[in-house]
TrEMBL record:
An MF annotation (GO) of this entry: NAD+ kinase activity
EC numbers, comma separated: 2.7.1.23
A Pfam family annotated for this UniProt entry: NAD_kinase_C
One example of a Gene Ontology biological process annotation: NAD+ metabolic process
Upper lineage: Eukaryota, Metazoa, Chordata, Craniata, Vertebrata
Enzyme kind, highest EC tier: transferase
Domain of life (superkingdom): Eukaryota
Gene (UniProt): NADK
Record protein name field: NAD(+) kinase
Entry's family note: Belongs to the NAD kinase family.
The entry's keywords: Kinase, NAD, NADP, Transferase
Length: 369
């Protein structure tokens, strides 16, 4: 991966504080990019032509090395295209669960909706190359580029000096209790977890761009989980569950559950209850540097389930723990204009933020009354 200078900071001085100006975050190439990863939504017939057109432009016109997932080329509509075969033969392929390409890709191009960008994020557990996302899906909150003018936009990105927004991710560690003789005993409607033996499973780790969701799963009982902040128990969540989200994820599931919307440049973690059994339980924002831990309460009547950006869903039992912190590896998203303008345009176009019927101005006769 080419060496990148991701920050060209300009600050605003406010008394003794230095406040980062979001518009000053720029992407500057140390040397021209030579390789690109193209992520395409699988089995979407509407993306076939844009995918072929883009890859042909990158390989034939820009002479770039194009990386593509092997399963994309296994699509019969692509594999059977003889006219496209010359271009395909120049591709470098990989499998998402076997190959690490983090050191070979200069930047990423996503063709699809927001889910495509989330998937691209999941491919990189550490440093993520800059991402250029084209709006070819259903929502497009995270995909600011229009494919109609992709050539001029790509030229601008390759030449460098474009705005970026650093979308923070969550580093999640799931520690599973591995005592072999663990048993669930139902007693007076309460499921207890007992067992002997020692040892724990090796913790699984995930990088999450939107949110971690802990919910009650298929159970009819309320979820009952303890929430710790830097080792201190701050509350017990009783309800359908809890959402721990990044600022990017604040406009996804969290906002549907009543959370505020946070600009992605704000260093924060949002905690949002899902249908809490308490009228006073409202979403809260905590500093990005804290460590959160979620565990089943000792009084929980059932297990819980956890998912990460809607994927890797798994059951959480007594003795298991979920530790959440802000990751050291954000996702550098290339902006169409700048971080502020792009974000507010997404709010207006995708969520119809503050859309209302306008009042008519008063006539001179009406003003008299």
């Amino acid at each position: 991966m080419s060496v990148l200078i991701l920050y060209s900071y300009r600050t605003v001085v406010c008394n003794i504080q230095h406040i980062q100006d979001p518009a000053s975050q720029r992407l500057t190439w140390n040397k021209p990019p030579k390789s690109v990863l193209v992520i395409k939504k699988i089995r979407d017939a509407g993306l076939l032509q844009p995918f072929k057109e883009l890859c042909t432009f990158l390989t034939e016109v820009k002479s770039m090395i194009v990386y593509v997932e092997r399963k994309v080329l296994e699509d019969p509509a692509i594999a059977g295209d003889d006219a496209f075969r010359t271009t395909m033969n120049k591709f470098c392929t990989f499998r998402d669960d076997l190959d690490d390409i983090s050191n070979y890709v200069d930047f990423i191009i996503c063709l699809g909706g927001d889910g495509t960008l989330l998937y691209a994020s999941s491919l990189f557990q550490e440093s993520v190359p800059p991402v250029m996302a084209f709006h070819l899906g259903s929502l497009g909150f995270l995909t600011p580029f229009n494919f109609d003018t992709y050539q001029s936009q790509l030229n601008q990105v390759i030449e460098g000096n474009v705005s970026i927004v650093l979308r923070s991710r969550l580093r999640v560690r799931v520690q599973k209790d591995s005592r072999e003789k663990r048993a669930k005993v139902e007693e007076n409607g309460v499921i207890l977890t007992n067992g002997d033996g020692e040892g724990m499973h090796k913790a699984a780790q995930y990088q999450v761009l939107n949110e971690v969701v802990v919910d009650r799963g298929p159970s009819s009982y309320l979820s009952n989980v303890d929430l710790f902040l830097d080792g201190h128990l701050i509350t017990t969540v009783q309800g359908d569950g809890v959402i721990v989200s990044t600022p990017t994820g604040s406009t996804a599931y969290a906002v549907a559950a009543g959370a505020s919307m946070i600009h992605p440049n704000v260093p924060a973690i949002m905690i949002t209850p899902i249908c809490p059994h308490s009228l006073s339980f409202r979403p809260i924002v905590v500093p990005a540097g804290v460590e959160l831990k979620v565990m089943l309460s000792s009084e929980a009547r059932n297990t819980a389930w956890v998912s990460f950006d809607g994927r890797k869903r798994q059951e959480i039992c007594h003795g298991d723990s979920i530790t959440i912190t802000t990751s050291c590896f954000p996702v550098p998203s290339i902006c169409f204009r700048d971080p502020v303008t792009d974000w507010f345009e997404s709010l207006a176009q995708c969520l119809h933020w503050n859309v209302r019927k306008k009042q008519h101005h008063l006539t001179s006769e009406e003003e008299e009354f």
